[in-house]
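Bench notes, afternoon.
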Amino acid sequence: MKCDICGIREASVHLTEVINGRTAKMHICDRCAKEKSEEMQSHFGLTDLLSGLMDMSPSGASGRMDAGESRKCPVCGMNYFDFQKTGRLGCGKCYEEFAGELSELLKKIHGSDRHVGKAPYGAACPESEQEDLKKLKKELDKLVREEQYEKAALLRDRIKEIEDGFNGEEKK
């Protein structure tokens, strides 16, 4: 079967598209498939995905901010309109500055705007909480040395609960 695009080479890629119940089939060669793939990647990327999710396509959809009305990040100067166009934030402060808008986007993508998955040990909690955990472990060592095993067992269980909470594990 010949390629539907060039009509010269043998078709090796077979596409089936169903739109509103109508089926269309296309048979294309490797070279034409590669060209179409590159063309599609240049037209459809992360920005288009985000635009679709937030109804913020750069072409000027209603209800979205434009360059003049969007507030700016105090650190890098990026505004939300720039994020709408590029799909990338300028710095870490942008996450705080645009928290409200990003929250809605995260809810649409992930179903939540809070992380509920696992994280590497020690990475999921702030330094102050890590320090508190270290103190509890030192206290546990002290209780074991003093042979206060009942208190040590309770403290051990509490430490495990805290660590499991940091790593997103559910209680059993």
